[in-house]
User: What shape does this take?
Amino acid sequence: MNRVAILAACVVVLALAAYPLVPRGQGATSVETAIKSSWASAAPEWQARLVQDETQKLCSQYRNAPPREIADAIVAREKATIQYPADGKLMGDWQKGERLAQSGYGGRFTDYPARAENGGNCYACHQMDGKELSFGTLGPSLREYGKIRKFAEAEVKLAYERIYNPQAAIPCGNMPRLGAAKFLTIEQIKDLVAFVMSPDSPVNK
Amino acid sequence: MRSCTSLAVLAGMLALLVPVVDIRAQDATEKELERYRQMLKDDPWSNPGLLDADRGEALWKEKRGPKAASLEACDLGKGAGKVEGAFAELPRHFGDADRVMDLEARLVWCMERLQGFDAKDILKRPYSKANQSGTELEALTTYVASKSRGLKFSPSLGHAKEKDMLALGETLFFRRQGPMDFSCSTCHADAGRRIRLQSLPFLGKPEEARQVIGEWPAYRVSQGTVMTMQHRIADCYWQMRLPLIDYGSDVTVALTMFLVNQAKGGEITAPTIKR
Assistant: This one.
């Protein structure tokens, strides 16, 4: 009995030491004050980008490791943002998708007025076509993504959802919510789905 | 004499590195840079960043501005005019301003108060563009930082506002925002990661922070100009699809405070030379 109590106490102490239950750092008020004053010269529509939505707030607060209930709430909220193509076709043109995967254009204050469509910038973080050697490693390799998944219909839908809003599957994951943020259009996302899921795509060669 | 050697090396480097545009050539670039770094060890005066430090020293001592004063009365934290070792202990709280400032915010403050410059004019163009010579602020920053070469970061945390600034910096490092949901930690909270072929320092880990934070200000070969920590942070926020951050603002000072505390005990090697 005693031993159990001691063991339980040890577990609690270890858990407290390993995981800060109370998020460390500065209170929300002073953070917001600092942000307002530090971008005072920016135009109002640009300052709006610094305002966090609920998911960003929670992921920041828990440093991308939210407790179960909060993670579940994020997944539910983000799932609800996903819009599907009206005609139900989730795969577009893989060649267009390849160009989007290469392009890091868009969204920076030097990118306005727009000179091109926004890119997906997938290669910044992922390996894709084996011939492209300039790939980042912030995300997992997507080599043979579709092939590994046997080009299954259900996987096409999952890939679409993963690109549209990855936090619907991985709460507080690093990848941008490209569809939900309206950074990419539904058509562009379909092209990216084709790039990873089409048997003809170099990703699967 | 020193400047002549530097210029000759600079010209040679530009000739060699101008064709480096393809991102695939970065590995080769990195190898070439390693060769330059070795050359710099053999001849420490050949770093083009030292031209900026020299110019900064001249600017520091010259009587300038509406008040025709030099910066020699500027207190960087160790007493008026004391430059040696000051950078190693910044950011810090300054009683006269009742604010925690990094070197760059402090320089603007001194240029306003002592020389009578208008901050608006100084900050019209705080950063040089590619292949321009460094701005006055960049030159001054490089000069002061170079006077802490060989010292270790030992930021002060004695004042309550310094502790607050550190806590703010840590919170900001993890704050996700903007259309891409990025925070500093998206790219800098894990070891051995890259964007394309560009390696990313793991700034959450003191061992790695100690190696890289003391390298700034740095001469960037791809830009042909010196880049300070303010510029480095502004560039990260630009890449995060956020608006241009104000020079010397609390967010930049807080992040610098967080970074030098992560790098505490790390040696200052600025100005170094980077891709």
